Structures are given as structure tokens and as C-alpha cells.
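Project outcomes to date are best conveyed with an example. Our students and postdoctoral researchers have been running inverse folding experiments weekly, and each run begins with a structure described purely in C-alpha cells. The record below, which covers 334 residues, was selected by the lab manager from last quarter's runs and is presented without edits.
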């Protein structure tokens, strides 16, 4: 990999929006793209094997042009299957492939992939090599600081170095270990403590590697501080729950002189997109379920939220009504 390429990854992706199953679908990503023109967006995890065997590939792979830069996340443990998946990702125009070695879900781990793969660095290295050899895209990895009792710095460092040798272009480290037996995925995102210092030490020991920190960031200022120590910051739950809290990403993280959009600005800019979705027979709730959080914490917007949820769920929401509700929001100053 040329240093030019490495630098372009570094410069472009200081902040990313985490992959989150059932949340970061293409509609949510479109909303996030209205909030930041620059943040790297991730798909939900796609199980490589399911992608290879499904007849409905576009259901897994489809995204909107506006979503670039976008990274497709794969889960899997079979290098041959990952090879096929990587070719599809490239043909479909994704900007990057991310390999998931951080998911602690029992369903995922029982297939021996996700976080349990951290116990088998050789296999992870083969998977990364296979992804790299079958496409020209950057291949990155998302992992934990360790699994079960094995969360020492030495293990983490050995893991990262061996994966770096197989060609991984960036490491996103969720600064918690995963406990595979006894904690469910939700508990695995809260109970194991965040150990940023371990990841800092990892970056200090491997200054040539691109290391992105993930886990527990709740606002832009915290993220900017983290950028003093890391090459990037990945944000998950906070962005989903409080999207507008992140409306200054372009300005503060990327130095772009733009005015942050209000909730109504964002919805108005999405009207053609929502209209197209409805015209093609899509359900308004697919998109509106993500819009709800744009008005979280706004006192008088309760009516807006109730109306949009009730009408969407009962399939009575049309674009005129959405325009009317959004104008109401704008009149209230949001
Ligand atoms: C509902 C939900 C689904 C998630 N799905 C994925 C996933 O598909 N792939 C993945 O690598 N991580 C997944 N994660 C983990 C997040 O990407 C992230 O690592 C984690 O939430 C910690 O970051 P945060 O504290 O900023 O939320 C998921 C998290 C949540 C809350």
C-alpha cells in the first residue's frame, strides 16, 4: 500500500458513524449524510455467506450515491467466501471494506466469527489477506481490546501487529473487551469498562498504523480531544440517539465553513428522497423511525413525534402531511 493511499484514508476519515445492526440502514445513513458531508458511514454488518448465497443481493448491497464515503462491513470466517464478497463490494462501488471482529452476539460467535475470532489471529489474518487480494479497496478491521480473560496489552498488540502484516489498512478498536459467555450484546456494550489508555498505548507503540478509537463518545468536543491521540473516532449510539448533537462535525472536525442544519432543514432536504421511497411502494416508517430522534429533546415537538409515528405506522403518512408537520417544526424554530 502506498503512503499516499494511507494518508488519504487518514485525512478523510477522522470521524465515522459506527455500523449498527437494525439501525444504520441506508435511510439512516441518508439522514446522517445531511448532517455531515464528510463522516465515513458504515453499513450494518453483512454476513458474507448470506450475501453469497442470497438471490436478492441488492437487498444487502444497495445504497444511495449520496452516501459516499461508505464502508461495507462483513462478518465471516471463510477466506474463499470473503473473497467473493469483496469482489461484489468493489463491483457495487463501495469505498472500503471493514471486517467485523468485535461483535459478541452468541448467534454471530456460534458461527465462529465476530469477537470470538480475536482468539484466532491467524484465521483473521487469512481473512484480511483474502479480502485484500480480491479487490483494490482499503480493507479495515473493527475489533475489541480483547475477549474473556485475554485483555492484556501484549495480546492486543500481537493481534494488531499480525493483522497489520496481513495488510489491514486501519484498525477501529472498541475500547472494551467482549465477554463471550454470560453477557448479552447490550451488556457487552456497557459492562466491560472502557480502557482508552490501552488503545493509546497501542497507537504509541505502533505510530505507523492508523488507529481509530471507538466506544462511549457522546459529543464533538470529546471526539476532538481523542483526535489528539488517535487517527479517527467512531461514534455509535450517541449519533443514533442524538443526531443533531453532531451537527457541527463538518465545521469542527473537518474545518468546513458550513452552517449546521436544523431538524426541519434536514427533513426538507430529504423530501425528494422520501417521496421517491413512497412512490416506489416503500413504507414511510422505514425512514420516519430514524427521523424521530431528530426532534428528541425539543419541548414542543412531542406532537410532531406522535403524529409522525402514528400516521407512519398506520400507513397514512403522505408527503403533503410530512411537509405540513415539518413546516410546523420550522415555525417553532427547529
Ligand atoms: C444496536 C447496535 C447494533 C450494533 N451492530 C454492530 C454491527 O453490526 N457491527 C459492528 O461492528 N458493531 C456493531 N455495534 C457496535 C457499535 O458499532 C459500536 O462499536 C458500539 O456501540 C460502541 O460504540 P458507542 O459507544 O459509540 O455506541 C452495534 C451497536 C449497537 C448499539
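After processing, the design step wrote out the following sequence:
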Amino acid at each position: 500500500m502506498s503512503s499516499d493511499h494511507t494518508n488519504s484514508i487518514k485525512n478523510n476519515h477522522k470521524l465515522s458513524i459506527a455500523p449498527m445492526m437494525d439501525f444504520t440502514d441506508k435511510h439512516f445513513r441518508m439522514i446522517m449524510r445531511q448532517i455531515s458531508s464528510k463522516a465515513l458511514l458504515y453499513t450494518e454488518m453483512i454476513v458474507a455467506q448470506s450475501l453469497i448465497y442470497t438471490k436478492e443481493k441488492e437487498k444487502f448491497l444497495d445504497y444511495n450515491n449520496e452516501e459516499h464515503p461508505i464502508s461495507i462491513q462483513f462478518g465471516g470466517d471463510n477466506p474463499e467466501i470473503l473473497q467473493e464478497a469483496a469482489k461484489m463490494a468493489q463491483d457495487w462501488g463501495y469505498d472500503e471494506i471493514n471486517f467485523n471482529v468485535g461483535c459478541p452476539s452468541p448467534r454471530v460467535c456460534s458461527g465462529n466469527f465476530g469477537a470470538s475470532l480475536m482468539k484466532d489471529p491467524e484465521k483473521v489474518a487469512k481473512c484480511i489477506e483474502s479480502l485484500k487480494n480480491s479487490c483494490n479497496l482499503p480493507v479495515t478491521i473493527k475489533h475489541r481490546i480483547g475477549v474473556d480473560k485475554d485483555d492484556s496489552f501484549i495480546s492486543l498488540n500481537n493481534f494488531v501487529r499480525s493483522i497489520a502484516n496481513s495488510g489491514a489498512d486501519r484498525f477501529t478498536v472498541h475500547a472494551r473487551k467482549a465477554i463471550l459467555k454470560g453477557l448479552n450484546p447490550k451488556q457487552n456494550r456497557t459492562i466491560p469498562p472502557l480502557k482508552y489508555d490501552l488503545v493509546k498505548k497501542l497507537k504509541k507503540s505502533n505510530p505507523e498504523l492508523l488507529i481509530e478509537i471507538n466506544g462511549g463518545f457522546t459529543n464533538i468536543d470529546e471526539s476532538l480531544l481523542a483526535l489528539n491521540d488517535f487517527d479517527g473516532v467512531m461514534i455509535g449510539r450517541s449519533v443514533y440517539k442524538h443526531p443533531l448533537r453532531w451537527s457541527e462535525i463538518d465545521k469542527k472536525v473537518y474545518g468546513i465553513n458550513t452552517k449546521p442544519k436544523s431538524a426541519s432543514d434536514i427533513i426538507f432536504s430529504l423530501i425528494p428522497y422520501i417521496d421517491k421511497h413512497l412512490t416506489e411502494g416503500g413504507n414511510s416508517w422505514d425512514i420516519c423511525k430514524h427521523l424521530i430522534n431528530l426532534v428528541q429533546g425539543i419541548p414542543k415537538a412531542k406532537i410532531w413525534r406522535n403524529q409522525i409515528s402514528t400516521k407512519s405506522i398506520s400507513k397514512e403518512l403522505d408527503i403533503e402531511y410530512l411537509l405540513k408537520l415539518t413546516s410546523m417544526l420550522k415555525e417553532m424554530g427547529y
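Strands lie at 15-17, 40-47, 70-75, 96-101, 139-147, 170-178, 211-214, 232-235. The pocket of flavin mononucleotide is lined by residues 18-21, 23, 44-45, 73, 100, 102-103, 142, 174, 189, 214-217, 235-238 (CB under 6 Å). The training component of this project remains on track.
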